[in-house]
Amino acid sequence: MAKGIRSIRGFSDILPDQTPLWQHVEATIRGTLEAYGYREIRLPIVEKTELFSRSIGEVTDIVEKEMYTFDDRNGDSLTLRPEGTAGCVRAGIQNGLFHGAQPRLWYAGPMFRHERPQKGRYRQFHQIGAEVYGETGPGVDAEMILMTARLLKRLGLEDVRLELNTLGTAEARAAHREALVAYLQAEEGRLDEDAKRRLHTNPLRILDTKNPEMQDLVEAAPRLMDYMDDASREHFEAVCSVLDQAGISYRINPRLVRGLDYYSRTVFEWITDRLGAQGTVLAGGRYDTLVEQVGGKATPAVGFALGLERLVSLLEESGGAGRANDPHCFVVSTDSLKALPLVEALRDRLPALRLQMQTDGGSFRSQFKRADRSGAGVALVLGDEELAGRRFGVKDLRGQAEQQALALDELEEYLARRWPELAATEVVD
Ligand code: ATP
Ligand code: MG
Fold first, then answer.
1. The Aminoacyl-transfer RNA synthetases class-II family profile domain covers which part of the protein (predicted)?
2. Model confidence at 186: pLDDT above 70
3. Which atom of ligand 1 is the closest one to the Cα of 123?
4. Which residue spans within 261-388 are E strands per DSSP?
């Protein structure tokens, strides 16, 4: 047999055993975002390369070495989106979403970065992100952080901690940068290759190094906080004060700088120790100059993105399995063609019923085996006799009760008693 084609390194299939947990996580997040007034926007996966170099920053890891960039058949340089904010800002400008409105938007989908694949770090991964445009004050920063806290709590993740910092204004960063470069230059011998390269292009990013041998060096480096302008300092204090009043604990981490250039003022991350070096599950902050940078009218913005792979694996690790969506019923029949109309009549009555059947028959024995494996609670038996009498044989697969024969009305009642959520008239997910 010819060698099978396998997926690309760093690109994964999310298999049917895993999708229930994914769906649970996605639905919980969506519910939380909508409760705070965010509306979904769906964006293209491919954008012009220039959009990302202009917004994320030329000398960031992403733009320097992680983008999937290619020329299309017209010779235009295109890029698979490495993150969602740039596209969101582009779409907002292009569609006039920011004019006189303060939109709250969320998006979800795959992102692509050519990184070294390892646990929690893939080349295709999935993010859900949210953004608010047009609000300048610290209130929206605080509200967004509170929302992310609620989101993680709803998912049952207690084991994550919040880190905060402020990056101040461009002027504050420039003054700090000068001091930082002087400090690092004096210690040039201790810098790794990456840091040497960054020294004159993007020294702030050196503080974000993951190299353990440079930790002491960056620990003692000049702190941006000491160069902060008063307005940024007040803004940050106001955010912290709301969190204090709401009883959210956090740590101010002066080295939290984020990997993208567009941030200003508040930045925050939710981090876990359970996923090794890939511990950041959700990250965000304010980016007041980005809209203008991409070509729109100056519009302040705050946003965050979370990594679904990391959240899902954290839930798996902590045993917080997702809501099962095993079928309620499994139909065992002698003639699926005759059984189908009856089954459809049952579905009409209970729209939320999860029901599965094996249409190509097989022995009762093998169908019962499959019913059991499906996780269904009840087998609905439609043998010749039941089909002729339009009754369902009902066998509890999880208890000892005798099989009973029920007409459609009685079956509807029985199932709604057993699974009260089925009685709701609307389909709930
Ligand atoms: P890291 O420091 O871990 O590389 P980042 O700063 O590059 O993260 P962001 O661009 O802020 O990450 O993306 C937000 C979130 O998306 C991250 O906190 C993480 O949960 C997730 N994420 C980022 N890159 C990857 C990846 N390659 N694989 C899986 N998840 C990722
Ligand atoms: Mg990264």
1. 21-341
2. yes
3. 27
4. 264-271, 280-286, 301-307, 329-333, 355-357, 378-382
Rounded CA gap, 217 and 208, in Å? 12
Cβ 394 vs Cβ 380: under 8 Å? yes
Strand 68-71: give its sheet, edge to edge.
46-48, 77-80, 68-71
- Cα gap 56→62, rounded to integer Å: 8
Cα–Cα distance for residue pair 200/285, rounded to 1 Å: 25
- Hey, where are the domains in the chain? 19-169+229-317, 329-424
Residue 377 has pLDDT above 60, yes or no: yes
Average pLDDT over residues 198-220: 87
Provide the mean pLDDT of the chain.
Answer: 92
For the Cβ of 415 lying below 6 angstroms from any atom of ligand 1, the answer is: no
DSSP structural state of residue 63: I
Which position has the token pair 């999880």? 398
Q: What pTM does this model have?
A: 0.84
More confident residue, 242 or 261: 242
Q: Which of 260, 267, 290, 289 is nearest to 90 (CA)?
A: 290
Architecture of domain 19-169+229-317: 2-Layer Sandwich (3.30)
Task: Give the three-class secondary structure for 409.
Answer: helix
Centroid of ligand 1 to alpha carbon of 265 (angstroms) = 20
Which amino acid is it at 155? L
Same-fold call for 19-169+229-317 versus 329-424: no
CB 200 within 8 A of CB 185: no
Q: Is 79:56 a contact under the CB 8 Å cutoff?
A: no
Helix, strand, coil proportions of the chain in percent (round to 5)? 40, 20, 40
Amino acid, res. 200: H
Cβ–ligand 1 distance for 117 under 6 Å, the answer no
65 CA to centre of ligand 2 in angstroms: 11
CA pair distance 237, 45, nearest whole angstrom? 37
Q: What are phi and psi of 77, to 5 degrees?
A: -85, 120
> Is residue 81 lining ligand 1, measured as CB closer than 6 Å?
no
Whole-angstrom CA distances from 371 to 95, 313, 333, 368 are 51, 29, 11, 5
CB-CB contact of 378 with 328 (8 Å): yes
Which residue do the tokens 């990250």 mark?
283
Please tell me the distance between residue 83's alpha carbon and the centre of ligand 2 in angstroms.
Answer: 10
